[in-house]
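User: quick one, sequence for these tokens?
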């Protein structure tokens, strides 16, 4: 069983990539609880680090960000 994610979740993404921006923009609007922080790292892909320093990569990072933005009310 995976450990629960500790917030805030810092999401690292490439702001020069239209694909990354398209995935991040909805999260900016949905995160009304302030559980997400965004950092343009200008490196390919999406990664995230939770409050305990654990790293998530790719789709796992994106899923965690969506769960945070939806206050855990979304399932995949």
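Assistant:
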């Amino acid at each position: 069983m995976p450990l629960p994610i500790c917030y805030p979740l810092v999401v690292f993404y490439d702001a020069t990539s239209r694909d990354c921006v398209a995935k991040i923009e909805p999260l900016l609007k949905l995160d009304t609880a302030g559980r997400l922080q965004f950092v343009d790292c200008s490196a390919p892909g999406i990664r995230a680090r939770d409050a305990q320093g654990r790293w998530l990569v790719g789709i796992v990072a994106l899923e965690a960000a969506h769960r945070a933005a939806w206050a855990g009310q979304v399932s995949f």
